[in-house]
């Protein structure tokens, strides 16, 4: 048996799972296999994504097997497939928007501790953008709008899938895994985005950066038609500012044109490696700021919190404390997020921004060797034994860092996938402290072994 990574296509009937399956696998290759224990055939096929062979499973057609509620059918059809997935493609119909069955299924899926890529299908010709955005509410990250039928967005999807696949795991019986050499840093400039609520001072900041740092190239077409990027340079090299058309346009014309919307921020952060979340410090932390921060975390980007308008803050000590208290409580999943205070208007304090961005980038790229990791892991297990689940103790065996950008760890053990959230948090917090990973998203994947 080959050990190909498994990608499972899930979602309610009629959202276009089979169509997507055929797109990815190609009709000719698609093979239908009889799976014992499943009343209907399950479609499986293989696809090559960025040079990597993967197995793709389509759960469509399995719904009829368990005729109770729609959710029950979806869940029954997907349970075994999701159990073996390395990545789940959760599809919704962007035209229909998020239905109760989608929401219900998403809630279940979130508990399965599997990487999920949310797909808003039937979005051909940029149709149904609002409905696709609504899918953020499912809590499964950024929806990827595409059209399986028309083939739009499929190449992008393939790249996104490839990015999320676990690195090839060379497991050799009881031995601790070798360190992986994968995941080399791509050459090229650090990609940074400036995001935040309208009026936080993003355009002012952009203008300042462009005015003070040497601009080494002019505007150039970015990765998508809506984005324009500009290059800055600091003493460590180039920084590509991935920018949305709106922010750039505003900065150039030098008058408050449209306010950059939060959804534009979302577009920008998807293209960035480090995201500078800009706040108007005179207003404190707003719920929407936290929403953007959580999105940055879910997307796995490094984040720097920029407290702008520091010139207008009266009690700086109290303001700083109020903001860090709020972050400690509301953003525990990004504990230690770096904070920079400055005034984009006057330029005071701005020199701290790019060094902080560089540092956040380094942390996000961190690698821990398997040796160090497992010495630490054993101490953690001794300090607090893993909890009992169904009266039996979980046997956690070893950990390895599968990738960086953001740091992603895999924990192997018998029934490891049952590990309660509190213990996961204990491990993630420990990783953060011991290996100096403040403010960066940390992923912990659980892998059951026999
Ligand atoms: P499944 O039940 O989730 O496997 O869905 P299917 O793949 O069978 O598709 C359900 C219906 O949606 C079919 O009529 C497809 O032709 C249609 N469909 C699939 N993808 C798209 C798309 O990208 N755009 C549109 N407009 N229709 C689509
Ligand atoms: P954007 O919507 O995030 O792009 O925000 P703008 O850059 O358009 O700024 C909104 C308003 O805040 C403008 O009136 C700016 O002059 C003002 N502003 C921006 N940065 C600062 C700052 O550092 N201090 C003060 N006092 N005002 C600022």
UniProtKB/TrEMBL annotation:
Domain EngA-type G: 5-169, 190-365
HAMAP family named in the record: GTPase_Der
Protein name (record): GTPase Der
One annotated GO biological process: ribosome biogenesis
Positions of GTP 1 binding: 11-18, 58-62, 121-124
Function: GTPase that plays an essential role in the late steps of ribosome biogenesis.
Complex and partners: Associates with the 50S ribosomal subunit.
GO molecular function, one term: GTP binding
Pfam families attached to this UniProt entry: KH_dom-like (PF14714), MMR_HSR1 (PF01926)
Keywords: GTP-binding, Nucleotide-binding, Repeat, Ribosome biogenesis
Keyword match Nucleotide-binding: yes
Family to which the UniProt record says this protein belongs: Belongs to the TRAFAC class TrmE-Era-EngA-EngB-Septin-like GTPase superfamily. EngA (Der) GTPase family.
Record organism: Kozakia baliensis
Domain of life: Bacteria
SUPFAM superfamilies xref list: P-loop containing nucleoside triphosphate hydrolases (SSF52540)
PROSITE patterns assigned to the protein according to its UniProt record, in alphabetical order: G_ENGA (PS51712)
Record: residues binding GTP 2: 196-203, 243-247, 308-311
């Amino acid at each position: 048996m080959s050990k190909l990574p498994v990608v499972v296509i899930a979602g309610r009937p009629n959202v276009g799972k089979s169509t997507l399956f055929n797109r990815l696998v190609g009709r000719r290759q698609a093979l239908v296999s009889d799976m014992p224990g499943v009343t209907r055939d399950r479609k499986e096929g293989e696809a090559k994504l960025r040079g990597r062979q993967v197995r793709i499973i389509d759960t469509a057609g399995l719904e009829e097997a368990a005729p109770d509620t729609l959710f029950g059918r979806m869940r029954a059809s997907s349970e075994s497939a999701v159990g073996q997935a390395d990545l789940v493609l959760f599809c919704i119909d962007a035209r229909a928007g998020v239905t109760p069955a989608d929401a219900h299924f998403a809630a279940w899926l979130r508990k399965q501790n599997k990487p999920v890529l949310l797909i808003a299908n039937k979005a051909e010709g940029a149709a149904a953008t609002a409905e696709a955005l609504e899918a953020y509410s499912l809590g499964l990250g950024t929806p990827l709008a595409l059209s399986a039928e028309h083939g739009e967005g499929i190449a992008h999807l393939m790249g996104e899938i490839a990015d999320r696949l676990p690195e090839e795991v060379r497991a050799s019986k009881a031995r601790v895994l070798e360190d992986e050499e994968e995941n080399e840093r791509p050459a090229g400039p650090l990609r940074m985005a400036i995001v935040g609520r309208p009026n936080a001072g993003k355009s002012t900041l952009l203008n300042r950066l462009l005015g003070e740092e040497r601009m080494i190239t002019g505007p150039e077409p970015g990765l998508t038609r809506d984005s324009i990027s500009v290059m800055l340079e600091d003493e460590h090299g180039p920084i590509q500012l991935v920018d949305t058309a709106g922010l750039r346009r505003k900065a150039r014309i030098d008058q408050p044109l449209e306010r950059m919307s939060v959804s534009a921020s979302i577009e920008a952060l998807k293209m960035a490696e480090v995201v500078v979340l800009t706040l108007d410090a005179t207003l404190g932390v707003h719920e929407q700021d936290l929403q953007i921060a959580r999105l940055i975390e879910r997307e796995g980007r490094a984040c720097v919190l920029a407290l702008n308008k520091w010139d207008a803050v009266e009690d700086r000590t109290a303001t700083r404390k109020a903001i860090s208290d709020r972050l400690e409580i509301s953003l525990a999943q990004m504990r230690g997020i770096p904070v920079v205070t400055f005034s984009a208007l006057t330029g005071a304090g701005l020199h701290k921004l790019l060094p902080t961005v560089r540092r956040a980038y380094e942390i996000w790229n961190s690698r821990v060797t398997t040796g160090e990791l497992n010495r630490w892991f054993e101490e953690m297990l001794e300090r607090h034994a893993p909890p009992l689940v169904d009266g039996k103790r979980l046997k956690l065996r070893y950990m390895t860092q599968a990738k960086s950008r953001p740091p992603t760890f895999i924990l192997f053990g018998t029934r490891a996938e049952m590990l309660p959230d509190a213990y996961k948090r204990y491990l993630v917090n420990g990783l953060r402290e011991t290996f100096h990973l403040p403010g960066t998203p940390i992923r912990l994947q659980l892998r059951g072994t026999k």
